[in-house]
Amino acid sequence: MILLQPLSSFPSFFLFLLWTTSLVFANEDSSFSCQFSIGPKTFNLTSLTGEHTVNRTRSTPPTTMRDVLIFNLCDDLETSDKMEKRDQCPEGTRACLTKINLKDDSERIISVIPIAQTSSLNEMYTMLPSSEGLSLILHGARYPNSSEASSSQQYLNLTLLCDRDATDSNSIEFKSYNGSELHLEWQTSAVCTSGDDHDQTGDGREGNDSDGRSYGSGLGWFFLVLLLAFAAYFGLGAYYNYTTYGASGMDLIPHRDFWKEVPYLLSDVVSHLCSSVRSRRPSNRGGYIAV
């Protein structure tokens, strides 16, 4: 049986609502969508979206190791129905490294490592000082287990270099992996600068338009969640008053006395602001002293 406890005070509950909606608003903006700005330059990497595969082979006699990385910069990887779930990275992964051991004609998966995950992405991007391009870092969780001292923080370090003639599907190089950082180098035209700093996009569109849409979308979500939170407050409050006190009509409104005082509180605030403005106006009687 669930018991609804009375709220100790409206201000504390109101602050809780604002905190909850701010978390949702922050989460809305935290999703990396391949569009961002660095100083005056706006980048649009949506032309690089989709799953890409790059691998390297290492000789480890008497066997051979093959490291296969599948990644998608702009969205989560899709799970495959053709593979066992334990042989794939969990949902919400953007970069997945699979280590395969080969001996004679047999293959054996020895580890599956989520290098970058949306839940802990914490993307970081910087311009390269020596060449036209940028460095993009996407984070993942600790591996193999966040509770083990021997686990390491995983992250993808992607160096994007400008190459207007590169074919993006064949220009990704697996540079290194040290158990924590996986370094890729990608020759692509998506980061090549143009004459207009504000049109630094892979498809020639203005970057500022996408920023405006993202801002408007986030603001809309904020007000939507705020409206739903207030609706939940009044609904739960009315239900509590009805089931606990048998209230009806206007008595169902939670913290009714406070809401009755709101117009007077607003009136006092406006009156105080107006009086403050009047008191700051210079007096026309300067130079005269009352006797």
TrEMBL record:
Swiss-Prot/TrEMBL keywords? Autophagy, Cytoplasmic vesicle, Disulfide bond, Golgi apparatus, Membrane, Mitochondrion, Protein transport, Signal, Transmembrane, Transmembrane helix, Transport
Which PROSITE patterns does this UniProt record tie to the protein? MRH
- Keyword Cell wall biogenesis/degradation annotated: no
Q: Which GO biological process annotations does it have?
A: autophagy; protein transport
Query: Transmembrane region positions?
Result: 219-240
Q: Say if the entry is tagged with keyword Nucleus.
A: no
In the UniProt record, the signal sequence range is: 1-26
Which Gene3D superfamilies does the protein's record reference? Mannose-6-phosphate receptor binding domain
Q: Belongs to which family?
A: Belongs to the ATG27 family.
- The name under which this protein is listed is Autophagy-related protein 27
**Species whose genome carries this gene:** Dendrothele bispora (strain CBS 962.96)
